[in-house]
């Protein structure tokens, strides 16, 4: 069965097989979800925000331990979250890009 995931802020939407991880779906969609551990729940770089998690697999014990209080704020590890029904996921801005964007914005204000 196919399900769809919409990534924000890009709006890219892809259809994937039910049970696919968000990380795998992100690769298919061309989303820049960061990873250094290739999906082994070790690097914590693949954090994404999923406000309505009804379409996702439940938070695993390992994922909860790794995310800490971020799990309570609807963050998930893309590599551990499997898609069971249509869902929307917000991909945080790359921290380095965010720093550069803020720097450029502050220079424009001067
Ligand atoms: S890809 Fe490293 S924790 Fe998810």
Automatic annotation (TrEMBL):
One Pfam family of this chain: Fer2
Domain of life: Bacteria
Residue intervals of the 2Fe-2S ferredoxin-type domain: 1-95
Name listed for the protein in its UniProt record: 2Fe-2S iron-sulfur cluster-binding protein
Natural source organism: Ferviditalea candida
């Amino acid at each position: 069965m196919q399900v769809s995931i919409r990534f924000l802020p890009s709006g890219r939407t892809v259809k994937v097989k039910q049970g696919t991880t968000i990380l795998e779906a992100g690769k298919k969609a061309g989303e820049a979800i960061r990873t250094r551990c290739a999906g082994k729940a070790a690097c914590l770089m693949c954090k994404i925000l999923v406000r309505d998690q009804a379409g996702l697999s439940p938070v695993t014990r390992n994922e909860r331990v790794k995310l800490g209080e971020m799990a309570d704020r609807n963050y998930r590890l893309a590599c551990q979250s499997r898609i069971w029904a249509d869902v929307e996921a917000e991909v945080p801005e790359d921290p380095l890009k965010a720093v550069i964007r803020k720097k450029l914005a502050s220079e424009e204000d001067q």
